[in-house]
């Protein structure tokens, strides 16, 4: 789904500076969800609710990263996430 979203024009994508349920993003989602659903039908039959939840998760991730970048703390967060992932990978191997 991320690869499909990358192919969408930036002007038609969600606005990550706004909240997920803002009027602007609701208008965009009304057009985006049917397009995603038709693009995914050959791989997965997703409902509108599932696609909305997936978009919500992706939006939350992008929105929080955007806020960190605006504050200048994105590099610190990248290091922390990488460190946490390494610890998680090692604990899974044990």
UniProtKB/TrEMBL annotation:
Bias (Basic and acidic residues) ranges: 67-79
Renumbered residue ranges of the record's region Disordered: 66-94
Domain of life: Eukaryota
Protein name: Uncharacterized protein
């Amino acid at each position: 789904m991320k690869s499909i979203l990358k192919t969408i024009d930036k002007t038609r994508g969600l606005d990550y500076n706004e909240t997920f349920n803002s009027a602007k993003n609701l208008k965009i989602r009304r057009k985006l969800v049917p397009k995603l659903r038709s693009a995914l039908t050959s791989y997965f039959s997703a409902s509108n609710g599932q696609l909305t939840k997936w978009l919500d998760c992706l939006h939350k991730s992008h929105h929080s990263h955007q806020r960190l970048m605006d504050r200048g703390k994105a590099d610190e967060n990248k290091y922390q996430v990488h460190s946490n992932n390494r610890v998680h990978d090692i604990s899974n191997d044990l």
